[in-house]
Amino acid sequence: MNGMTHPRHTRRARRLLWRWHGNPLRRREDVAGAWIALLTWVLILVGGALVWTVTARAAGQEFAGQRADRHAAAAVLLTDAPRGLSPSTDGSETPAQVRWTAPDGTTRTAHTLVPSGLPAGTAVTVWQNGRGALTTEPPGPAEAHTQAALFGGAAALSFAGLAYGTAALARWCLDRRLYERWGREWEVVGPKWDQKTG
């Protein structure tokens, strides 16, 4: 049995590939449908992997740029940061006015999110970009890697959905054309069939 193909596997392969063989029952729509299915899976597998790689790499570079551009800075609260209305909000953040020194040495003030419940005059840490504007803390390397992978996966799934939807629409058009052809053929064959069975 080594080196030989099992007859059951051969029959299964023939059933799967009948649209490409010289079958007298095969129609042009059958061949087109088979090519659409093949190209759809190639697009989903190859194109999806490519989209995932490109998107994940671009997101990773964006996060790396954020880590290079954003830096922590010491700031002082100029106003009280109100505490939450319920104990369940402990550890939450609330907007308050802070003062900090920008990279060019100028003193700046702005509103940003700080831990709630802190009184004015408390030292806090804020994040600023290279121009001295307040921003959010950039994701760390591990978090950035995870987020980049998620962005890549979401882009790949979106691409796969688009490819599948386009193929489904093309297949629907093929089926509609095939049904119309069957209808025309039945208009010719139907009366003859009725005469034979009548």
Automatic annotation (TrEMBL):
Record flagged with keyword Transmembrane helix: yes
Transmembrane intervals: 31-52, 148-174
Keywords: Membrane, Transmembrane, Transmembrane helix
Highest taxon of the lineage: Bacteria
Keyword Membrane: yes
PANTHER family per the UniProt record, alphabetical: MEMBRANE PROTEIN RV1733C-RELATED
Entry protein name: Integral membrane protein
Species of origin: Streptomyces andamanensis
